């Protein structure tokens, strides 16, 4: 963020990370992880604190830096083809097809379409074809490593939200300069609750539920019944009784859900996975579609997934941007399936 010149604006709309306190459901403390103590100060150690910001605020900052005519909203990527020069066999161009029938040709395609990335699926198809699909009749492309061929599964679902401004007397954590996360582990249920204070006396909140059995991810498993508004309401009801972030532990999740606009609550699935392959031909992958450590499904934009963003130089995605920035120059086009330029969908 510092290298992109975005850090000052992000700091203005966020809180530095202070600590995580892990509690049992009787509110006794299991332990703490600190980011600004005498013994462990992230700024001294890494150059910056992590900054806690809501996803809509982060999106608005990013969007304000990109010329509007470069963003084509409501475009769904369907597939891409890396085009080889017939004389040399070298890949020289990539063509993209969108669901509205439009085509784009480019020198480089950067896929940043999240955990269930269609760009990654297209790239992997191309690599399989070019490597001969195990038939020995390929074009010199190395086959995909075994790790990338394993089926995707998720083991946790979560409900995420960003509350409206809350009363500081009831939730004094929200008045602190540093964001002090609270995590409540339930001993006798599959739930875990996260509360992350952000600017404007609000909480980003997250409740995860561990499933008894992992569920296979299919390219079409976005059934409205599992991830649509009804599923969100159903999970909201199921977790109302869980402990809220109140001092003393009297309040419930229900209080926080009632203090959160309905369109700012989303149900998501979580998956931890790192793909080895992140480029091929003229396509490169960026963000979650490369390292799926958490997988969102449907309207995650509303939620708290931007709660902590690394500002230090170690962040891999930033390095990728640097790598390709000279190629992009001013001719970058961004296509996104998002239909509005505002961030709350
Ligand atoms: C519950 C949860 C909590 C998290 N908490 C944190 C946290 O505290 N801190 C943190 O740093 N990270 C957190 N993460 C992870 C973080 O949200 C992701 O790493 C990050 O959002 C990944 O960004 P991305 O751009 O790769 O993908 P996404 O944010 O998923 O964006 C993908 C975009 O591509 C668009 N798209 C999808 N398919 C197509 C298509 N076919 N054509 C065109 N556009 C398409 C989507 O509409 C979307 O706008 C969390 C994630 C979850 C799920």
Can you give a write-up of this model?
The protein is of the alpha+beta class. 21% of the residues lie in helices and 29% in strands. It has nine helices and 18 strands. Strands 1, 2, 3, 9, 10, 11, 12 and 13 form an eight-stranded mixed beta sheet that branches. It has a three-stranded antiparallel beta sheet with strand order 5-6-7, with helices on one face. β10 and β11 form a beta hairpin. The longest helix is centred in the middle third of the chain and has 13 residues, at 118-130. Mean pLDDT is 82; it is low at 293-307 and 310-329. Flavin-adenine dinucleotide binds at residues 75-77, 112-114, 118, 158, 160, 206, 268, 270, 287-289, 294, 296, 300, 305, 307-309, 335-338.
Topology:
Elements lengths: L6 H6 L2 E10 L4 E6 L7 H5 L4 E2 L2 H10 L6 E2 L4 E8 L6 E8 L4 E4 L2 E3 L6 H13 L15 H4 L3 E10 L16 E7 L5 E8 L3 E15 L7 H4 L1 H10 L14 H6 L6 E6 L2 E2 L4 E2 L2 E3 L5 E2 L23 H13 L5 E2 L10
Parallel strand pairs: 1-10, 4-18, 8-16
Antiparallel strand pairs: 1-2, 1-3, 5-6, 6-7, 9-12, 9-13, 10-11, 11-12, 14-17, 15-16
The structure holds flavin-adenine dinucleotide.
């Amino acid at each position: 963020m510092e290298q992109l010149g975005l850090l000052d604006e992000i700091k203005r709309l966020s809180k530095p990370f202070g600590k995580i306190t892990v509690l049992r459901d009787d509110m006794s403390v299991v332990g703490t992880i600190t980011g600004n103590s005498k013994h462990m100060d992230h700024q001294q150690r890494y150059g910056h604190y992590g900054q806690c910001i809501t996803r809509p605020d982060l999106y608005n900052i990013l969007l304000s830096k990109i010329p509007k005519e470069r963003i084509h909203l409501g475009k769904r990527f369907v597939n891409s083809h890396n085009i080889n020069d017939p004389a040399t066999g070298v890949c020289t161009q990539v063509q993209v097809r969108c669901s509205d029938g439009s085509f784009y040709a480019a020198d480089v395609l950067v896929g940043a379409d999240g955990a269930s990335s269609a760009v990654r699926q297209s790239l992997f198809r191309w690599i399989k074809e070019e490597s001969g699909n195990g038939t020995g009749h390929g074009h010199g492309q190395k086959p995909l490593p075994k790790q990338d061929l394993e089926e995707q599964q998720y083991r946790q679902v979560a409900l995420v939200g960003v509350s409206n401004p809350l009363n500081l007397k009831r939730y004094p954590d929200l008045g602190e300069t540093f964001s002090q996360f609270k995590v409540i582990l339930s001993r006798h249920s599959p739930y875990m609750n996260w509360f992350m204070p952000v600017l404007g006396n609000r909480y980003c909140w997250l409740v995860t539920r561990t499933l008894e059995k992992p569920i296979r991810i299919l390219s079409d498993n976005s059934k409205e019944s599992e991830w649509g508004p009804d599923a969100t309401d159903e999970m909201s009801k199921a977790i109302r009784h869980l402990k809220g972030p109140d001092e003393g532990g009297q309040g419930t999740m229900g209080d926080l859900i009632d203090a959160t606009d309905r369109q700012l609550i989303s149900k998501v699935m979580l998956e931890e996975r790192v793909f080895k392959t992140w480029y091929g031909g003229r396509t490169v992958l960026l963000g979650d579609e490369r390292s799926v450590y958490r997988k969102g499904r449907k309207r995650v934009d509303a939620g708290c997934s931007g709660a902590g963003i690394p500002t230090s130089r170690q962040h891999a995605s930033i390095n990728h941007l640097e790598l390709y920035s000279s190629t992009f120059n001013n001719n970058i086009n961004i296509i996104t399936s998002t239909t509005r330029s505002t961030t709350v969908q």
